Amino acid sequence: MTRVITIRLEVPDDVEVRWDDARADGEPLPLPGWSAPAPLRREPPRLPARSAPTSASGVCPVHRTAWRTVPAGVSKKTGRPYAAFRVCPESGCDVRPRDDQRRTAV
Asked: Measuring CA to CA, which of 18, 21, 32, 74 is 20 to 30 A from 91?
């Protein structure tokens, strides 16, 4: 069974279009310059994640709002207990109080 398909290609005027993979003399066509393999790239070394900035005052230095205390509880993800801690009340803020202010007795 033979099927005929129609393919429409829009090609810029400065691009050469080739229909078969060999010349009349049987030699393979040279690869165009744009098809040359890209040079191997070395990935930069992965640096450890930096910790979020900390603040020694009683307010978030970015939003100027008082820390919100998250009460001690049990993680829904891991089931492990955690101590109470303080966070900025603004959603998405990663600034944390300094270690001596972080944990509170609740």
From this structure: 74
